[in-house]
């Protein structure tokens, strides 16, 4: 087993894919979701290997966020099952962390940066004396070392999202579920956070399920990009990304393979959009 | 003048009418000779106010009023929170409790004075009970609506982090509603004083309200007005205290 745990993001991808099918960290099998009588997702099968980055793209309203909530245990599937290391996920667990899209509302406005990170440690029952050191390490890790005493509203958008990521890392999760986390940030900040996220995931061997509607972002980050489409949403496209790691904002994006994948995904989204209009 | 330190927090011209009014009353009082039971010269009222202060009557009576109003307020606050928090969090509990609570709430609190007197007799307890009943309603309503107003995202964060119910209430819900609870507390304080003084005037031999009734019944209008002055000052200073506390606690956060 220990040998298997060493899966690294820049291993040749087919290895991780094969492993995902055999021994997934988190998986959805035959999952459907109805919310208030409306079918939101239908028959979703998804297996994520340890250390794998899976990106989910799709038009708004196709159920991307709902799928992420199902994986987090924040929603219960109407049919099928979500499992974490083979055990069913019925409620949120500390191994699975959720990075919310709207960082402004996900942080507690009355707690400063350090106290916001502390919330996650309090939730998993870390005794008080042990917290301060871990909080400091986490803030250093996300580049907020000098900002421990600042309230969220005193931080920029990028810093607030870094803070939320630090709070999620405090749980020492094996899976990071990220819901369009950088959608509201400017291009420079977004690229910096993309690289930091990849570095953090590589260092901690955490798997990431990353929802975005930015195709470039999905290809840049992912080992696999899943296209979600339809109503109810289904996984209608799976695109493996065989780009070398560590990735680089310039060379990766100039790689002919990147350009090819980008075109393929654009065509996919275009087809979905045409079908939707035709209905 | 702008920027210079000012003696008054308002323009001096605002004093013209009140001071003029008092001077006019004083003038009428010294010039008229008619019998007057509901009327006293401002100077006589001030003298009576000073007398009650130096004899310790004011402090003792104000203490009684503040203790009963305060105890009733705290009791009502605790009950209001204990009822309001679950009803704000759980829609089902709210449906269950809607009819009983909404039928109790419109009962005028002072209508409970006779009942409270029967149960507790004269003294602190009957007054505290009536005050508590009066403030539970507004505290409960404010708490419930404040909880309904919490961003659902914040509740989802607490679920995602795996906070237990108690931790969710103490770490997320209470801090989130605290500023609005404080406003409710300030409003409830006004209600508590009104009800406490009412209970004292109508039934309970305690506090400033009772002393004022005695002054009225023994035809001492100067003493009655003096006690009215103290009641007014008490209410004003307690409210000012809370406004200050609110600005200090939540000024930056609001």
What share of residues are in beta strands of chain A? Answer: 15-25%
Protein structure class of chain A: alpha/beta
Please report the distance between the alpha carbons of the first and last residues of chain B.
32 Å
Oligomer: heterodimer
Judged by helices, strands and strand pairing, the structural class of chain B is: mainly alpha
What count of helical segments of chain A does DSSP give?
10
Give the strand order, joined by hyphens, for the main sheet of chain A: 6-7-8-3-9-10
Note down, in words, how this protein is organized.
The complex is a heterodimer of chains A (279) and B (254). Chain A is globular and about 55 Å long. With 279 residues, chain A is α/β, with parallel strands linked by helices. Chain A is 41% helix and 22% strand. Chain B is mainly α. Chain B has one domain: MetI-like (MetI-like fold, Orthogonal Bundle). In chain B, 78% of the residues lie in helices and 0% in strands. Chain B is built from 10 helices and no strands. The longest helix of chain B has 38 residues. Chain B starts with 15 loop residues before the first helix and ends with a helix. The model of chain B has no long low-confidence stretch (mean pLDDT 89). Chains A and B meet through helix 4 of A and helix 7 and helix 8 of B.
């Amino acid at each position: 087993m220990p040998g298997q745990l060493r899966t690294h993001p820049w291993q040749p991808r087919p290895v991780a894919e094969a492993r995902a099918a055999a021994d997934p960290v988190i998986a959805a099998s035959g999952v459907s979701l109805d919310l208030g009588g409306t079918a939101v997702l239908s028959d979703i099968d998804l297996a994520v290997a340890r250390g794998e980055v899976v990106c989910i793209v799709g038009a708004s309203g196709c159920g991307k966020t709902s799928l992420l909530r199902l994986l987090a245990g924040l929603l219960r599937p109407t049919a099928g099952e979500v499992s974490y290391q083979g055990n069913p996920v019925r409620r949120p667990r500390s191994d699975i962390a959720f990075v919310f899209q709207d960082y402004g509302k996900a942080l507690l406005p009355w707690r400063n940066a350090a106290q916001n990170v502390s919330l996650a440690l309090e939730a998993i029952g870390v005794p008080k004396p042990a917290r301060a050191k871990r909080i400091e390490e986490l803030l250093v890790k996300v580049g907020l070392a000098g900002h421990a005493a600042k309230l969220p509203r005193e931080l920029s958008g990028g810093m607030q999202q870094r803070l939320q990521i630090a709070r999620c890392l405090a749980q020492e999760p094996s899976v990071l579920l990220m819901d369009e986390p950088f959608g509201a940030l400017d291009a420079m900040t977004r690229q910096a956070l993309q690289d930091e996220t990849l570095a953090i995931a590589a260092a901690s061997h955490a798997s990431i399920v990353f929802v975005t509607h930015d195709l470039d972002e999905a290809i840049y980050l992912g080992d696999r990009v899943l296209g979600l489409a339809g109503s109810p949403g289904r996984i209608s496209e799976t695109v493996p990304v065989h780009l070398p790691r560590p990735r680089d904002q310039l060379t990766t994006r100039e790689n002919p393979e990147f350009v090819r994948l980008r075109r393929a995904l654009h065509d996919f989204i275009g087809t979905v959009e045409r079908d939707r209009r035709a209905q | 003048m702008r920027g210079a330190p000012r003696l008054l927090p308002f323009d001096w011209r605002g004093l013209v009418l009140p001071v003029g009014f008092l001077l006019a009353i004083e003038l009428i009082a010294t010039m008229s000779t008619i019998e007057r039971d509901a009327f006293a010269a401002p100077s006589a009222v001030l003298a009576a106010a000073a007398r009650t202060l130096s004899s310790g009557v004011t402090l003792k009576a104000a203490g009684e009023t503040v203790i009963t109003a305060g105890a009733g307020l705290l009791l009502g606050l605790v009950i209001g929170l204990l009822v309001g928090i679950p009803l704000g969090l759980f829609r089902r509990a709210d449906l269950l409790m809607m009819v009983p609570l909404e039928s109790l709430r419109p009962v005028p609190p002072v209508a409970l004075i006779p009942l409270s007197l029967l149960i507790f007799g004269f003294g602190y307890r009957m007054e505290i009970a009536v005050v508590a009943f009066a403030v539970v309603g507004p505290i409960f309503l404010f708490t419930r609506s404040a909880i309904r107003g919490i961003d659902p995202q914040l509740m989802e964060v607490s679920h995602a982090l795996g906070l237990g119910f108690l931790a969710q209430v103490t770490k997320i819900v209470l801090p989130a509603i605290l500023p609005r609870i404080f406003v409710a507390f300030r409003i409830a304080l006004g209600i508590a004083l009104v009800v406490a003084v009412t209970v004292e005037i109508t039934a309970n031999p305690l506090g400033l309200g009772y002393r004022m009734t005695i002054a009225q019944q023994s035809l001492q209008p100067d003493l009655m007005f003096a006690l009215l002055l103290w009641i007014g000052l008490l209410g004003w200073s307690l409210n000012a205290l809370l406004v200050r506390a609110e600005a200090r606690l939540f000024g930056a956060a609001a």
